TrEMBL record:
Lineage: Bacteria, Bacillati, Actinomycetota, Actinomycetes, Micrococcales
Organism annotation: Myceligenerans salitolerans
Source taxon at top rank: Bacteria
Name of the protein: FAD-dependent oxidoreductase
Pfam families xref list: FAD_oxidored (PF12831)
PANTHER family assigned to the protein according to its UniProt record, in alphabetical order: L-ASPARTATE OXIDASE, SLL0471 PROTEIN
InterPro entries noted in UniProt: FAD/NAD-bd_sf (IPR036188), NadB (IPR005288)
Amino acid sequence: MTQQDLQTDVLVVGAGLGGIAAALAAAGRGARVVLTEEHPWIGGQLTSQAVPPDEHPWVERFGVTARYRTLRDGIRDVYRRRYPLTGAARAWPALNPGAGWVSKLCHEPRVAVGVLEEMLAPYRSSGRIRLLERVRPTSATTDGDRVTSVTLGSVVGGPDVTVSAAYTIDTTETGELLPLTGTEYVTGFEAASETGEPSAPDIAQPDNVQALSVCFAVEHTGGDHTIDRPERYDFWRSYAPAAWRGERLLSWTAPNPRTLVLDERSFTPNPGDDPLRVDADQSKNAGDGNLWLFRRIAARDLLEPGFRDSDLCLVNWPSIDYFLDHVLDVPREVEQARIADARQLSLSMLYWMQTEAPRADGGTGFPGLRLRPDVMGSADGLAQAAYHRESRRIRAVTTVTENDVSHAVRGERGATRYDDSVGVGMYRIDLHPSTGGDTYIDVPSTPFEIPLGALLPRRTTNLLAGNKNIGTTHITNGCYRLHPVEWNAGEAAGHLAAHCLATGHVPHEVQEKPELLADYQRELTATGIELRWPEGEVHPY
């Protein structure tokens, strides 16, 4: 097929949350942007990966960017305008459509897709943003320390597209541009001798990467909706990871991330709870006692009686964490085979729930559990894309380590303050079991800042990081990988690219020179990006 060639100011590869934020920020400042996406839906972990937003307890008041708040407000607005909410639900200022305990805003992923599309719409209409759909990066060219072009291959049989840009922002889920552009990066666990982190091993473990997961949504209705027995069911049914201490992965039992003691969770579909009483604050309550409620994305009792027969439960639990092997820096066919095996794990968990899972009434199996392919936007009912908790990470100008955010290390001093802060975030250092055999690493952290230096590779001058590929370690990735932090990093990167285009300065120069940095930070603040946490308003957890 004929190859297309495009030229633009800013190329943003990956239309996850960081990528959309980067494109909006750059286009909002007048830059021409090409934005790309591999999967059918834009939105990354919020949509195609179907992960409800993990956020901090103060999200309703502060600690996220104005554009991220617009996204959250837009999602609630859809429910208020289009769904038959009860009077009490409609009057709930902080409406949580799913009434899940993991987040103050659990919702169906398709609703977020529509809101994100609406946010992009005026820029796409004007031609300021051009979205290339169903493509992935396959190669790149460089000139010294500059990226000159990226070639994108179609995943549906279309022509290749080569895009040349003044600035390129890598907002892919696994840092795919880093090896293609020769940008230095790290994978897996760094050594304590390099980072000084108390939780790091003595020797680097580049193949030791956090589990990925393939999520899915189920409802519980009458009838038997049992799926065909998955091909790998016998393997996954008997698999007992070391961290589970003899218990099987397919069970209601899993290690408590904070104590590592095995906890037995419950599972009661449609329990008849009062969704208006859900207090989704993980600093108070992990919320995973009844797994049905933990990541519920649609609460039927917030709607007029009879409109919905069942809640929708989003399955993203320890039992579907895939940590047999990683998918970074392996041949494409190996990557796809491992993700296919992760999909088999998820289907096996569903089949186990439908046929063998113990019930509170003493019986076994929930055959009334039904996949919702329409909710996931996929043929098989699983999420369109795997949820990658950990990416390749740039060798950055500034690398955030455990010593910068751990409450045990920092104490009352709080997290490291950065002169070049471009945003804020908060979450515990929460690492899932990993491919090196580690169990959970769960460390209390303090409200932290995002340094501009973490978005800048040490050498490459016009490539910026805007997703989970920023300058964190294996450990601090565990608290910087969440939805609002990814959005903030991408938004700051998009602003920086447009700022440099407008001023003629280069990113490293902006980060290094106080007067240039101050000008850039004033622009961030003017667009609603918070650079510091309010004094006395936040606490570690």
